[in-house]
Amino acid sequence: MLTTRVTVTVHASDPLSRAGLISHLRHQPTIDFVPEHDDGVRGDPAVAVMLADRIDEPTTAELRRLLRGRDQRVVLVARELREPDLLSVVEYGVRAIIWRHQATEQRLLNAVHSAARGEGELPPDLVSRLLNQVGRLQRATAAGTGTGGAVPLFGMAPREVDVLRLLAEGLDTRQISEKLAYSERTVKNILHSLMTRLQLTNRAHAVAYALREGYI
How far apart are alpha carbons 8 and 19 in whole angstroms? Predict the structure, then answer.
């Protein structure tokens, strides 16, 4: 039986969807709601429930806002998630994911309490997809270890940041290799490994990602 009280805020771009989520949880005796724009007035809520049809730029910006510098857990109620999106939301720190069509009162309540305890919760089909994607990324990471240095599964290694910073300054492969005392092949391998691991389409996309995420 769930007895611990949890403070919750609900976020959705559509007011009707937000009202629907609130109605699912409002009568639960262990849930205390905090208004969406009351952040900091009564302390940060323990759990943020966020509804998103898809993971786009506004959604990722909101996730970063919710998780930046806070001891707050996020439950994501999603209509669809592509595999790169799944890795992104896990990297951002989302604790639990529920498919929108499966978001019953009991599932939402269980997910909120799991997140509040610091536990994770995923639908079985997402667990399988996540494991498959992580396996592919680990193989891509292993393939890139010949460039030297540890390569993280998520995020960027310092040497990757160094390469992208110079790329953002307009240097080409030869100039980057001279600056960093790498061979041109090593520079190319670093970029290829990075773009494969993070599902980035080209060098410009990699630079844009690094800028957006605050690496450079």
Answer: 14
The rounded average pLDDT for each run of 10 residues, N- to C-terminus, in the chain (216 residues) is 84 88 88 69 72 86 76 87 78 85 91 87 81 64 53 68 90 92 90 83 85 79
- Domain boundaries in the chain? 6-120, 141-212
The reported pTM is: 0.62
- CA distances, 125 to each of 129, 136, 204 (Å): 6, 17, 33
Q: Is the dihedral of CA 173, 212, 56, 86 positive or negative?
A: positive
> Hey, how many other C-beta atoms are within 10 angstroms of the C-beta on 107?
18
Residues near 43 by beta carbon (within 8 Å), at least 6 away in sequence:
7
Domain 141-212 of CATH type 1.10.10.10: yes
CATH class for domain 6-120? alpha beta
Q: Which two tokens stand for residue 188?
A: 């190319």
